[in-house]
Design goal:
elongated; disordered N terminus; four-stranded antiparallel β-sheet
Length: 433
């Protein structure tokens, strides 16, 4: 069944979303007190022409016009109005020891000292990783999405501030990409209509045993995994309209002589060493941090349900899953109410939604009156800043990992009690015999 967006044409809604985001950029997020690292990613959008509405010229518009006028001019073209908007993702090269090895991501990386600002870091990283120049006349820097804190140890330790920037390429053909083999294994253009479809929603199973047994070996990890299973994260199965593989990546052409033995493969799987366990054959799944960024963006499109389709992480083991569900029920309900207050879980007007999100985020963080925060403060012209959790998925996860830790402790106590009861029963049985 077609969504309202697909019936009316996604390009029409994309035009409105980009115009609003340009006029009302997200505020600056300062570095956490204990971390001074920043990183940037580039959300690169294009409109692919359709068969029945092919462009008659390759005009890229007047680059001297203001951004708002350039957007109006671009989206006024018939081939754009009837085209398919797409976003560019990369699949990171598989590398041993890399926490993001083989993940689907947006082009980007850490900010270097020579970068003048966060936007410059996104532009430089896109040039280095995929060979795409985002400063040319056929590319429009539209704006940004909410900056956010990237954390580890289940939200307790900040790693960096991540800044997502939006760029629109006005070309009707595919831009030439030059993939860096040490960073990028492949690139994929994904249609918005596929990202918005509930039918491609799934889960990613992640082994978290190394988080509990960092200094332990194979047997300890196996024990933790057998007890707790895999962690489940919301994910989207990607359906590319166009892909480009980096043939210089090691392992692009499998070499039968270097295939690992059965025992080596089993050990690699048990230790979750993705860089050595057939990473190239894994499906394209968008999850984690990058999915959080896309959720903020996609929720601005009808039917405005991207946040509702996103689910907090949990576990696959039934009793642990039940404990997590019960222990986080009230918290999840409370956080959803915060999103409703922001207008995120309702089909509200986009302009009202953006203002409401800013107001609610500040209400949650600083206990301010929602009515005191308006458009001027959100635009950043007054220099106002916000914290690193003032975005949709960040609000959904407020306090969640703290409850998750408690759930794991309760689960371990439950399993110990259950095991003790089973052992005592067995002892009584054999003693009677």
């Amino acid at each position: 069944m077609d969504t309202p967006a697909s019936q009316a044409g996604l390009s029409h809604f994309l035009h409105g979303v980009l115009s609003e985001l340009y006029q009302h950029p997200s505020p600056h997020v300062p570095d956490p007190p204990s971390c001074k690292k920043r990183a940037s990613v580039a959300l690169i959008i294009r409109v692919r022409p359709t068969y029945n509405h092919w462009p008659t010229s390759s005009s890229i518009g007047d680059p001297s016009l203001p951004v708002k006028d350039r957007l109006d001019e671009f989206f006024s073209q018939p081939w754009v109005q009837n085209g398919d908007p797409e976003v560019l993702f990369i699949k990171r090269a598989a590398r041993v020891g890399d926490r993001w090895t083989g993940h689907i991501a947006l082009p980007g990386g850490k900010r270097d000292p020579e970068d003048t600002d966060d936007q410059a870091a996104a532009i430089r990283e896109a040039s280095e990783e995929i060979g795409l120049d985002l400063t040319t006349d056929d590319c429009i820097h539209v704006g940004n999405l909410p900056e956010r804190w990237v954390t580890t140890s289940w939200g307790s330790v900040p790693l960096m501030v991540l800044c997502p920037f939006i760029f629109l390429t006005t070309r009707s053909d595919s831009p030439t990409l030059n993939l860096q083999p040490t960073e990028v294994a492949s690139t994929h253009w994904i249609p918005f209509k596929a990202l918005l479809s509930p039918s491609v929603r799934t889960v990613e199973h992640v082994d978290i045993s190394q988080r509990f047994t960092k200094q332990s070996g194979f047997l300890a990890r196996m024990a933790v995994r057998s007890l707790m299973g895999f962690m489940q994260f919301s994910a989207v199965r990607l359906l590319p309209s166009e892909s480009q593989q980096c043939s210089s990546v090691p392992g692009f052409i499998p070499n039968e002589k270097t295939q690992p033995s059965f025992l080596q493969g089993l050990k690699s799987w048990c230790l979750s060493n993705q860089a050595e366990s057939g990473e190239r054959d894994r499906p394209l799944l968008l999850w984690g941090l990058t999915l959080g960024i896309l959720t903020d963006f996609l929720d601005l499109f009808p039917p405005n349900d991207a946040v509702q389709l996103w689910k907090p992480p949990t576990f696959g083991v039934p009793d642990l899953r039940l404990i997590v569900s019960v222990l986080t029920y009230n918290l999840r309900k409370h956080n959803k109410e915060q999103l409703k207050a922001a207008g995120i879980l309702k089909n509200t007007n986009l302009d009202d939604k953006l203002n409401a999100l800013s107001a609610t985020s500040d209400t949650v963080t600083h206990n301010q009156d929602q009515g005191e925060v308006g458009r001027t403060e959100r635009s950043g012209s007054s220099g106002q800043t916000t914290d690193g959790h003032a975005y949709a998925v960040g609000i959904m996860l407020r306090g969640y990992y703290d409850r998750l830790r408690v759930a794991i402790y309760l689960f371990l106590a439950w399993r110990i009690a259950l095991g003790s009861a089973a052992g005592f029963t067995a002892w009584r049985f054999f003693r009677r015999r």
